[in-house]
Amino acid sequence: MKQSQGRFPSPAAQQLVHLHKNLYVNRHDPKYHEKVIRYLDPHSPEAHYRLGQHFDQKGLKSKALYHYKQSMKVYPSPYYYQASGAIRRLEQNAAAGAATASGTIAGPTPEQRAERAFPLFLKVLVMTLFMINIALLFIFFAPSAISKAVTVLSPFTVGKSVTYESVEKPFLLHFPHGEPNRKVEDALHQKAIKLAEAYPNAHIVIYGIASSAAGAEQKAVPLTNDDWKRQAFVVAEYNPAIDQAVKIRFVHPELTAVGANIVRTALNAYISEHGTAPPRLDDLLQDYPNNYMSFLPAEGQSGSALVRTFFNGSGGWVYDREAADAERMFYPNTEPGDEPIRYTPVQLVVEAAQHSLELRTGDRPIARYRIGLGSDSTPTPTGSFTVGNRVIEPEGRSPGVYGAAALSLGSIAIHGTTDVSSIGRSVSLGCIRLSNEEMASLYPLTPRGAQVVIVPAEPGGTASANVAAADAWAPAPAVAADSTAPTPALTEALMLGARSQSGPLKPVETAKGNLFHWLG
């Protein structure tokens, strides 16, 4: 939802979540999580977990179990372990109840219950009075501690808005280089819970740093220098006063630049076809054939994909359709680093001699794939092309001929195939083939308008010579012979964003009823 740019924006607007087209819902709506599942994300782990809690409290165990199990289907998720614990508790309670019903656990007789009723009442009364006295002693004699601060107190025509925030406690935790993500998640989860016990009124934030000196026993130490934050590859946050989940976010420095240029490439394609920028960024995420992108990448520093029309440094993105070019039209809503993010369009470079395809922006490689090409009698054309229509599961002259997805280049396409034996060989009718699994990975990362450079194979030429030949075919930066290899973690982070996005911003990219006639 676009927020007012006035001096005093409505406090209610901050509680509204855009679910579908003109449908917004308040976060405090009793049906909020049900509406999230219905209109935004049917697989939301948080929404299913909260609904599980709701039905659990009402005693509706079967419904609670259903939503807890749905929450566990998304992994990794901050609600995975909580849902697992809740399921284990419900199943243990059910087993105990069954045992009682079958007579294995003998319950008290009516006479015994009558005898225990009065003593139990006295016990509860005495315990309640004792706890009240302890609480009064603590209030009057305990030292005062600053645990919360009023951060907003804005007068409006009716009422006022007050926000309380816990004091943030930042910590630093070192991990060995190459530590598996699962081990990192488990360690951060355990450390956050222990630190919350030691600092019960604090918002715990742990910054994970990769270090060759990390020992077997990992200790979280207070963060005294903010420079360490920029070196963190993972951040964990835990504030039990607000949310029982430990939120873990892996940070990829290149994610912001790559995500920005995916969107900018799609923006330029839209402008080229319509003569003007789209009124809203959502217009790039429409159903086929207007699916310029498959998803909106998250901004790497904050992990947010929220788009604003003005800059305030709160994370996510800024979209200003009145700007002069794509670089100034779309940029991260964070404080700028040492260098601004330059616009380098998404580019696919096909090395015919190596039977490989590399996805990149400028000189930054993102992913590399093994491909199949045209035969000697029906060779794949060389030169510079532009990605046009993007379609999932395209229909051709025979079922599945174009595989999982396709990127149209005119008479040919980059598409998937079930014939994995053709990968790494020159046997197609001219199209560029990838395995269905790798095509499903490449497709969402390639926007409409991406440049495709097909470098001819030089007989006896080296890989570097063939790659350098891209200069003769495209105005975009050439593929450098000494460029670094693609980073698997970067590709994994981008794909995680593509998989997690659903609901109204997830376009329908199939083209039912359309028959495609690429060379194959």
TrEMBL record:
TPR repeats lie at residues 45-78. The active site is at residues 415, 431. It comes from the Bacteria. Residues 346-455 form the L,D-TPase catalytic domain. SUPFAM superfamilies: L,D-transpeptidase catalytic domain-like, TPR-like. GO terms for biological process: cell wall organization; peptidoglycan-protein cross-linking; regulation of cell shape. GO terms for molecular function: glycosyltransferase activity; peptidoglycan L,D-transpeptidase activity. Keywords: Cell shape, Cell wall biogenesis/degradation, Glycosyltransferase, Hydrolase, Membrane, Peptidoglycan synthesis, TPR repeat, Transferase, Transmembrane, Transmembrane helix. One of its GO terms (cellular component) is extracellular region. The keyword Glycosyltransferase applies. The chain crosses the membrane at residues 120-142. Pfam families: YkuD. InterPro entries: LD-transpeptidase (IPR050979), LD_TPept_cat_dom (IPR005490), TPR-like_helical_dom_sf (IPR011990), TPR_rpt (IPR019734), Transpep_catalytic_dom (IPR038063). Pathway: Cell wall biogenesis; peptidoglycan biosynthesis. Belongs to the YkuD family. PANTHER family: L,D-TRANSPEPTIDASE, L,D-TRANSPEPTIDASE ERFK_SRFK-RELATED. This is L,D-transpeptidase family protein. It comes from Paenibacillus validus. The lineage of its organism: Bacteria, Bacillati, Bacillota, Bacilli, Bacillales.
